[in-house]
Automatic annotation (TrEMBL):
One term of GO molecular function: beta-N-acetylhexosaminidase activity
Domain Beta-hexosaminidase bacterial type N-terminal: 35-105
Name of the molecule in the record: beta-N-acetylhexosaminidase
Record: active site: 274
Native source species: Actinoplanes cyaneus
GO CC annotation terms, alphabetical: membrane
Taxonomy, superkingdom: Bacteria
PANTHER family, A to Z: BETA-HEXOSAMINIDASE (PTHR22600), BETA-N-ACETYLHEXOSAMINIDASE (PTHR22600:SF57)
Reactions it catalyzes: Hydrolysis of terminal non-reducing N-acetyl-D-hexosamine residues in N-acetyl-beta-D-hexosaminides
Family assignment from sequence similarity: Belongs to the glycosyl hydrolase 20 family.
Pfam families, per database record: Glyco_hydro_20, Glyco_hydro_20b
Keyword hit for Chloroplast: no
A biological process from GO: carbohydrate metabolic process
Known EC number: 3.2.1.52
Length: 462
């Protein structure tokens, strides 16, 4: 692509309002930016942070003014200042020169999420933090951790030590890749690190399906009390908790209470997907007892959209994912007042291959090139599920085929920036050609930072 002078609009996600002031620039230092990011006021170096209005830009909005004599960043809340600094960082990339003018910005949706699957392959605290640092640059504000599945159980639960002794095993594949688990202290460390960056951690314990690791650790949780074998393959849908056993509910309540106590954020994700080995009435009976538990401990339940088959307590959030299930009762949940997170696999699953040659990932929901992740409107995806019902948009990354942080980055970039813009920028302010040009500018930055992004031919000529 032809090199061009920096433009005030070269930001991802695209801001709501950009008014450039031609021929005006201001130069910032990395130091001043770091102080601004830490919320230090005055940040020095000509950057001034003001925690005063504009109220109309909401809890995460900000107003940025760049003149020849300095930068003024205003927001009603500290989160807005933090997102404003992410905008500044993108504009300053390279030489520190900021193009002059005014930006006014606020998100379309309150929930802009990314999910990392620690169960199929474990990632350490440091790896999770480094990943988060890359996500917040695009104003992602929820980090969903998929902590348990058939192949692994990755969170310490006091009183149930075999979960992590046995369930902290290899994950998918028999190459020994990916063992480990988070102690509660590790989890608190991640949660605190995220909170400093205005990111809410959403922990997921998947139930009543995807529980083979728990059943291996505690055979008393199986329907007949018989031991089951550990699994490292990528099959889904074969395991379930026993809906008819009281032990099940004692276990589940301990887990949910542990999670609620450890999680300052408002959400607990209870999974609920792919319970293919459980009769439908057992599934509903299980959920009718379990979905109210987060509320009992002061939290809101989130579940994959299969939970819409059950009665949903007030405050429950439904996360839509399966492309072919256009009519899974999500619209009825919305009519009953429940909120929805949009994660259609054929648009935002970061573990889908980009193209037929992609060496990682899956293709059960089709190929997801960058433009496919970008060019859609979450408010038009499901009949009866319109803008007002949407809490937001989230991009899951399942880790069956992942073995390293480089693998995570390869599937995440540049698709996550596309999804971040879907979640932040008003639909009328989005345009693929514009996104393509803006995301192209990240190649040298990712290269300098050692981020192994996918050099998509949709964006970069071969
Ligand atoms: C479906 S998405 C699953 C996961 C797999 C994923 C792979 C969802 C709620 N369940 O168990 O890892 O497909 O793409």
């Amino acid at each position: 692509m032809r090199p061009h002078a920096k433009r005030l609009s070269d930001v991802i996600p695209a801001p709501v309002l950009v008014v450039p002031e031609p021929d005006v620039t201001f130069t910032v230092t990395p130091d001043a930016l770091a102080r601004a990011e830490a919320g230090e006021s005055p940040a020095g170096g000509g950057i001034s942070l003001e925690l005063s209005g504009p109220e109309e830009l909401g809890a995460e909005g900000y107003r940025l003014e760049i003149t020849a004599s300095g930068v003024t960043l205003r927001a009603a809340q500290r989160a807005g200042l933090f997102w404003g600094v992410q905008t500044l960082r993108q504009l300053a990339a390279g030489d520190g020169v900021l193009p002059g003018g005014v930006i006014e910005d606020r998100p379309r949706f309150a929930y802009r999420g990314a999910m990392l699957d620690l169960a199929r392959h474990f990632f350490t605290v440091d790896e999770i933090k480094a990943h988060l640092d890359l996500l917040v640059q695009f104003k992602i504000n929820h980090l969903h951790l998929h902590l348990t599945d058939d192949q692994g159980w990755r969170l310490e639960i006091p009183g149930w030590p075999r979960l992590t002794e046995i369930g902290g095993g290899p994950g998918t594949g028999c190459d020994g890749a990916g063992p480990g688990f988070l102690t509660l202290a590790d989890y608190a460390d991640v949660v605190a690190y995220a909170a400093e960056r205005f990111v809410t951690v959403v922990p997921e314990i998947d139930m009543p399906g995807h529980v083979n690791a728990a059943l291996v650790a505690y055979p008393e949780l199986t329907a007949d009390g018989q031991p089951v074998a550990p699994r490292t393959d990528a099959e889904v849908g074969y395991s379930s908790l026993a809906a008819g056993k009281e032990e099940t509910y004692a276990f589940v309540e301990t887990v949910i209470k542990t999670l609620a106590d450890a999680t300052p954020g408002p959400y607990l994700h209870l999974g609920g997907d792919e319970c293919l080995s459980m009769p439908a009435e057992d599934y509903r009976a299980f959920l009718s007892r379990v979905l109210p538990l987060p509320g009992k401990y002061g939290k809101r339940a989130i579940g994959w959209h299969e939970i819409a088959a059950a009665g949903l307590p007030e405050g429950t959030v439904v996360q839509y994912w399966r492309p072919e299930q256009q009519d899974a009762g999500v619209d009825a949940a919305v009519t009953a007042g429940r909120a929805v997170i949009m994660s259609p696999a054929d648009r935002v699953y970061l573990d889908m291959k980009y193209d037929a040659d992609t060496r990682l990932g899956l293709d059960w929901a089709g190929l997801v090139p960058v433009r496919r992740a970008y060019d859609w409107d979450p408010a038009l995806r499901l009949p009866g599920v319109t803008e007002d019902a949407l809490l937001g948009v989230a991009a899951p990354l399942w880790s069956e085929t992942l073995r390293s942080v480089a693998d995570v980055q390869f599937l995440t970039f540049p698709r996550l920036p596309a999804v971040a813009e879907v979640g932040w920028t008003p639909q009328a302010g989005r345009d693929w050609e514009s996104f393509r040009e803006r995301v192209a500018l990240f190649a040298p930055r990712w290269e300098a930072a050692g981020v192994s992004y996918f050099r998509s031919p949709e964006i970069w000529a071969a």
